[in-house]
Fold:
Amino acid sequence: MEITVYSIPSCSYCTHLAELMRRANQTPEYIGVGVVRREFDGLDGVYDGYMSKKDFKEKFPNAPGYPWVIIDGEEIGGLYETATFFVKNNLVSSKKR
Structure:
């Protein structure tokens, strides 16, 4: 599964998404939007790539915010949509431990 996460620094939803990825044993590519070589707030430490906000909005005009997740070339959405996708595909459980 090829996953790309577009995120920004100091984004609590992005941090929660990084935890979701860890729970699902997924290692996505993290793209920092509107940042230049700044550390990522999530669990992986540093962005894998960078993109301007202008380029992000041109590429994903319907993205309402961050994080924005692409799985196998398909726009999944934000944290909630990604969590729903992972539950439906048995990558994580919706039950509390």
Q: What stands out?
A: Residues 17 and 40 are 12 Å apart (CA to CA).
